[in-house]
User: Fold this.
Amino acid sequence: MRTDHLFYKLFETFPETLFVLAGTQPPAPGSYRFEFIEVKETALRIDGVLVPEAAELPYYVYKLGYSREELEAMFGLEELKNTRYFREVAQQAREQGELAVVSRLLTRRFGLLEEALLERLSQLSSAQLESLAEVLLDLADRSELEQWLQQQRPQL
Assistant:
């Protein structure tokens, strides 16, 4: 931790600073404590961990640069799945997968899709993509697809 001494002291004194630097809403003061953890069994060194005081809050690892296997060894897969980062990445992957499948099906049905149409598809919510997946085989031509897209309102 020699090279990160200043950050270690900062995060140890004010753990919520890590949230501010990460661009997320800081938790209430006292919700976390910052610890330096070394896992000797697997020779892994973690620069720091924000350990939640309440069981329902996620752990935060400082200077994450480890493989999935190393993280599983440190925390266990179930603990990783409960982190906010893991949930956000999984949701984003699901949405990208939905978009990819719908785009491929539309390309197969109507031929090569224009960039503007692909952009409109990428603006659809997950629920809208699922709805489009259900109706796309019933669409007779591109004009019906355009009509369906016009009927969709952006969902925030």
Observations:
- Residues 88-151 form one domain.
- The CA atoms of residues 48 and 87 lie 21 Å apart.
- Helices lie at 5-13, 16-22, 68-75, 77-81, 84-110, 115-122, 126-135, 142-151.
